[in-house]
Amino acid sequence: MPRRTTLLAVLLTGASAAVLVVDLARPGLAAPVRAGAAAALAPVQEALAGWDDGRVAELTAERDALAAEVDRLREQAQDAAELQQLARSSTVAAVDRTLLPARVVAFAPGSSPVGGRTVTIDVGSTDGVLPDQTVVAVDGLVGRVLRVAPTSADVLLLGDPQVVVGVRFGEEGALGDVQADAAPGLPARGHGQLTLTALGDTAVETGARVETLGSPDDVPYAAGIPLGRVVSVDPDRGQLGRTAVVEPFVDTDTLDLVAVVLREEP
Amino acid sequence: MIRVLGPLVRAVLLLAAALLPSAWPAGLARPDLVLLVVAGVALLHPPRVGLLVGLAGGWLVDVVPPGAAPLGASALAYAAVGLGLGAVRRQLVLSPVLPWLATAAAAALVLGARGVSAAAGVGRALPGELAWTLGVTMLVAVVVLPLVMGLERWMTRRGWA
User: Fold this and answer.
1) Beta pairing partners, A246
2) What is the pLDDT of residue A111?
3) Least enclosed by CB within 10 Å: which of A55, A98, A197, A210?
4) From the CA of B103, how many Å to the nearest CA of chain A?
């Protein structure tokens, strides 16, 4: 009996190592495994996370939707003004978004050997969620959809090393990108803080507001979603492009109700 | 036939440990319950049992949504924890504090691996977060570890495991 257990242990360890290598080489190959686990376990996670269901969730969802609506209208007004000024309608994406409210039901494990920033939300492909859609909260950008299962979806959060967001910052809407990791040699970042790298020679000012730049068809990020505020500008140490520290508006550690930005069918 | 009951109970424990963090309030550091279950079993059995339980727990950490990437990395890390704790279990009977300390060392190693991989540019881990996770895990271990070990002893006496 012990011999058999030892043999089993050795075989399974070998198999795990093999899967690890395969997953590193072909990251998409394990998708059915994850989808199966999500389909089986997400309902349990939803039940476990749903301790304050009902009125509070409903009102919070309503408030989020209204705040998003205000953002949208402001955006529309700004777009209209800019359009008039520029008279170049083809450059600004039309703002036609629907928000699908969702609740965070699980966070990424805090002790896996590779630290990632992901959460699971309780809406999935049956609700119309697709990979690479933008996820927002009442204060601003949360991240993008990474994987979709029938009743749940995994969201890659702002602050994960894989997330790089094209942004506009400051009053003039200068271009740049925001990501979690700072280039070597820059001052250490605090908890949750991100690094803005300006494109070109634009000066970055403390207090500047950072918004998403947007991508074609809103994939993976819709345009004009508030992301954060510049809290300090890094000293010039010869890095390519000025860099600054951005404090995101959304605290990804305490996420609860979020919304997926769906594209309206034309 | 009765020997199937032990692995079954452990599987249920691991599944519960992997799913319970969903009920944990957002914003607080989450304890690593899976590691505590793996440690509780591994501290009482030969290394091969700890290795198998560690593999199973690690696989759950990897695939329970939102999961961890790359697939299999947590499985190998927790298997190493089970193997290590199983190997030193005879030296830990001198004092009831020693199993707790050994578990703390194992948790620190797992979190250390996360820190090192982040420092190497894979993934992201902040020292403060790692310290909080370790602190909360070991605080919860004061209650959970004796419970799991008690259950394991009870199952061993009844011939389940």
Assistant:
1) A194, A230
2) 86
3) A55
4) 14
CB A137 within 8 A of CB A121: no
pLDDT band at A47 (very low <50, low <70, confident <90, very high): confident
Residues B75 and B62: beta-carbon distance below 8 Å: yes
Rounded to whole angstroms, how far apart are CA atoms A121 and A156? 11
**Residue A202 and residue A183 in one domain:** yes
Mean pLDDT of B100-122: 92
- Residue B12, chain A, CB below 8 Å: the answer is no
Tally the domains of chain B.
1
What CATH code is carried by the domain that includes residue A151? 2.40.10.340
Placement of tokens 């740049």 in the chain: A176
CATH code for the domain of B133: 1.10.1760
Per-residue pLDDT band at B130 (split at 50, 70, 90) = very high
Beta bridge partners of A143: A135, A157
Burial letters B85-99, b for 16+ CB under 10 A, else e: bbebbeebeeeeeeb
Same domain, A258 and A237: no
Q: Closest Cα of chain B to A203: distance in Å? A: 28
Q: Which residues of B touch A120 (CB under 8 A)?
A: 65-66
Which residue in A has a C-alpha nearest to residue B48's C-alpha? A6
For tokens 């319950």, name the residue: B33
Residue A6 within any structural domain of the chain: no
- Residue A266: enclosing H or E segment and its boundaries? none
A142 and A57 inside one domain: yes
Q: How far is B69 from chain A (nearest CA, A)?
A: 7
**ipTM > 0.90?**
no
- Chain B residues with CB-CB distance to A123 below 8 A: none
Domain of residue A242 covers 164-248
Question: Which residues on adjacent β-strands are paired with residue A99?
Answer: A261
pLDDT of residue A189: 82
Among residues 56-115 of chain B, which lie with CB inside 8 Å of chain A?
58-59, 61-77, 79, 107, 110-111, 113-114
Give contacts of A191 with chain B, Cβ < 8 Å.
Answer: 126, 128-129
CA distance B46 to chain A (A): 9
Q: Which one-letter amino acid corresponds to residue A33?
A: V
Q: Which residue has the tokens 């109700």?
A: A257
What is the domain-level CATH number for residue A201?
2.40.10.350
Q: Which residue has tokens 């686990």?
A: A37
Same-domain check for residues A209 and A126? no
Give chain A's domain count.
2
Determine contact: B119 vs chain A, CB below 8 A: no
CB-count burial class (<10 Å; 0-12, 13-18, 19+) for A247: middle
